[in-house]
Amino acid sequence: MKSSPGKPGILVISHGSPDSDWVAFVDEAVAGVAVELQASIPIVSSFLEIVEGRLIQDGIDQLEAWGVTDIIVIPLFVSSGSTHIDEISYALGMKSTPEKETDLEPFSLSARVFFGDPIDDDPIVAEIVWDKVKELSTRPEREMLLLVGHGSRHEGFRQRWERGIAGLSARVGRLGGLAHADYALLSPDSLRSKVSYWQEERGYEVIVAPLFLSKGYFTSTVIPSRLEGLSYRYLGEALLPNSRLSRWIYLQILNIMGSLKL
């Protein structure tokens, strides 16, 4: 007997923030994906924490209430080294145990789950980063780009952070035709030492680009405070808002649906 076809739906998951602009920028990006989907597939934006009424379980419940049987999860995080990727995939039943202990309980769901990938070194995102900082570049042959991410002190997670951000910084450097590209993490902290090395020891003009989903405490306070007294160029612009991020989400959805024939 032939089984009936499933009904796919999209669940975009990001961290969440008490800043209403942060949430609004994410919602704007997801709305852009909805336009691309042309209402053919339901899509919901949910958050790991803070945004009450729109947490991950709320998103699951909403999709299942619409009859969704196959949930494509897009983790809107900048790195596979985030411990949140580990705990969310565990709570969604994608792995039997988390790599790092978590308070996140398994979610209640009936639908099948297909888990996408975070940003890491995606070429579309490299274009976004360069768009955000290119006005700072005047002599590319004497400039280097330093991409700054949150990072992780946890073994295994830190290495994933490093792989993704190293690849992404190299992509951005090539796009801008810059002399060099490198990365720094806030945890464990390598930011000040990297800027000092490239500016003082190597003699390059340093363009600092934050790798964060949206502007906030890290982009406006933490990064500038750790670089106080050093010479560098910085605008503090995060990935959002930018319509290309909607495109990144949309293409990932198409890729998953194509591979699974949903």
Automatic annotation (TrEMBL):
<keyword id="KW-0456">Lyase</keyword>
<protein>
    <recommendedName>
        <fullName>Cobalamin biosynthesis protein CbiX</fullName>
    </recommendedName>
</protein>
<keyword id="KW-0479">Metal-binding</keyword>
<dbReference type="Pfam" id="PF01903">
    <property type="entry name" value="CbiX"/>
</dbReference>
<dbReference type="InterPro" id="IPR050963">
    <property type="entry name" value="Sirohydro_Cobaltochel/CbiX"/>
</dbReference>
<dbReference type="InterPro" id="IPR002762">
    <property type="entry name" value="CbiX-like"/>
</dbReference>
